[in-house]
Amino acid sequence: xxxxxTGPSAACFESTxxxxxxxxxxxAITSLAMSDFxxxxxxxxxxxxxxxxxxxxxxxxxxxxxxNAALDASxxxxxxxxxxxxxxxxxAGFDLKVMTSSIDDARRLLRAGAELALRxxxxxxxxxxxxxxxxxxxxxxxxxxxxxxIGADGPFKLGLNEVAIGMPVxxxxxxxxxxxxxxxxxxxxxxHAHLCTPTExxxxxxxxxxxxxxxxxxxxxxxxxxxxxxxxxxPFRLTRNxxxxxxxxxxxxxxxxxxxxxxxxx
Length: 266
Fold this sequence. Notes:
Blueprint: E1 17-21, E2 28-33, E3 38-43, E4 46-51, H1 61-77, E5 80-84, E6 88-91, H2 96-99, H3 103-121, E7 127-131, E8 133-136, H4 138-143, E9 148-152, E10 158-159, H5 171-180, H6 183-190, H7 198-204, E11 209-211, H8 216-230, H9 233-253, H10 255-261
Parallel strand pairs: 4-5, 5-7, 6-8, 7-9, 8-10, 9-11
Antiparallel strand pairs: 1-2, 2-3, 3-4
Helix pairs in contact: 1-3
């Protein structure tokens, strides 16, 4: 289901849990349904958050709320998180039904996405993204926020196409991209709406490495497990604040002005 402009129904967020053994000598795996589209599976010290709406993984109110609920659970108990898209599609960005319904609804969804991006950017534990295919618009912005990004090598596009479809790139998106993209690709990707191939996305800074599509999930979980095992939680959080807190605070302070400037012209 796609969330309406008034937000998702409460029924979307009933959590259920199932338990299964992952194999001899291995810890139990817990599966949690955070929403209709978001499910968390616990693999040892890693919380694996699967995003799958059965379509393009558009970021609706329901999907964003489901991701926030999953992160709430993960931050209190996990050593690291892996967020993984569906086959061929990580996320096509915001739900266009909402973005084109009214400027007020578009701005509400935009703010929810901005707050999610800043949450990932400032996460107190490492977050790895399994970029399983296309990552467009807000999907591309999210790719700049995580600690490590493993992408599928194939006929996929990654980047910010906002200017080409009649929307400005909001300040928070510009600055998160400036923080992560290489200087030589920044203008091309943000101002000129260039969509990268996976190989270009590594060069630009949207991805850290490429693997075969079938290996994205395992690769993301393995990288998250490595980060969970090798990094100390307290020093990680303090260093995160040193590296990113000033940028995040400035972007949060500017969100009202950022939303006021946003409009859809095409």
